[in-house]
Amino acid sequence: MLVLLAGIFVVHIATVIMLFVSTIANVWMVGSSNIGTISTGLWLLCNKTCTQLPVRSEDEASLKAVQAFMILSIIFSVVALVLFIIQLFTLEKGKRFYMTGAVMLVCWMCILIAVSIYTARFTGTMMYSTNPHHGYCFILAWICFCFSFIIGILYLVLRKK
């Protein structure tokens, strides 16, 4: 049981770190141009230097929603990690980690909403570049989506023995 708890804890910490990286780094879409490689993220457009991300007015609300939901997913993931640690030491034997699992599933839903909006509105529509494709931050966000769902379900069924 201790090995299972330690494994879940390590995967949870890895998920938090990957969420931070995918939200902060600016490599959600990558393309090439005559200047070189161009990458865009949730915040900046980067080639040799980084500038503010140019967004059409009809896409501005979508980008702000993606930014907000990614930040919320980080917050909920950290809260779930703190709740897990607190419940690990205060919960009676035989009880389940319901609160931790519920908060982690809310984190999962926030990631789902953010990445789905980004996929629907911004995939393949990168300005100033040819042959755009997804960067590692986009892929990390989908990996975090999978990990947070698995962790959330494991917390719901896990009993403290």
Describe this structure in words.
With 161 residues, this protein is of the alpha+beta class. It has one domain (1-29, 59-121, 137-160). Helices cover 63% and strands 12% of the residues. The protein has helices at residues 2-24, 60-90, 98-122, 136-157; strands spanning 29-32, 37-40, 44-46, 50-52, 130-134. The chain has a five-stranded antiparallel β-sheet. A hairpin with a 4-residue loop joins β1 (29-32) and β2.
Secondary structure layout:
Layout: H1 2-24, E1 29-32, E2 37-40, E3 44-46, E4 50-52, H2 60-90, H3 98-122, E5 130-134, H4 136-157
Antiparallel strand pairs: 1-2, 1-5, 2-3, 3-4
Quick structural gist:
One of its GO terms (cellular component) is plasma membrane. This protein is α+β, with helices and mostly antiparallel strands.
Overall shape: it is elongated
Q: Helix and strand succession?
A: HEEEEHHEH
Strand content: 5-15%
* Tally of alpha and pi helices: 4
Main sheet summary: 5 strands, antiparallel
Strand order of the largest sheet: 4-3-2-1-5
Gyration radius over CA: 18 Å
Poorly predicted parts: none
* Counted beta strands: 5
Q: Separation of termini?
A: 7 Å
> What number is the mean pLDDT?
88
Approximate helicity band: 55-70%
Q: Count up the domains.
A: 1
Structural class: alpha+beta
Please describe the structure with a list of short key phrases separated by commas or semicolons.
5 strands; alpha+beta; 161 residues; single chain
